[in-house]
Amino acid sequence: MAKSSKKTVKKVVKKAAKKVAKKKAAPKKKAAPKKKAAKKAAPKKAAKKSARKPNAAFMIPLTPSDALAKVVGNKPMPRTEIVKKIWVYIKKNDLQDKQNRRMINADAALKPIFVKDQISMFEMAGALNKHVK
Fold first, then answer.
1. CA angle 109, 110, 113 (to 5 degrees)
2. What does the alpha-carbon distance between residue 125 and residue 133 come to, in Å, rounded to a whole number?
3. Strands (E), 1-116
4. Along the chain (133 residues), what's the average pLDDT of each consecutive run of 10 residues?
5. What is the Cα–Cα distance from 99 to 107, expressed in whole angstroms?
6. SS3 of 21, please?
7. Containing H/E element for 5?
8. Is the pTM of this model over 0.70?
């Protein structure tokens, strides 16, 4: 019984070895020949994408507080416009830190808004949130 099981194991091993040898010896298939490009390109279809609509929550006019109004004006405007005007003020007065450009140094006008002397640009939106209604 032990001899017969050894023989079957040997047969299985030989078959597996033959399969591996066939795969290695099999010639590689050639790539399909490239089709020649048509002389005239197909006319492009005018795909109309619907214009991206802004989120209504961002477009609600908000009234800035007195401290914020000194920087951006006192007219109600969307949050996105308020942030843009803050960035214009920061760039105009060169308030970004020289070594770490992500940090904004507060001057006399921004100190009441930011509360700290220096604030990260990522914290700026949260600080502005407290000064709009």
1. 120
2. 14
3. 103-105
4. 66 74 62 62 64 79 95 94 96 96 95 95 92 93
5. 18
6. helix
7. helix 2-25
8. no
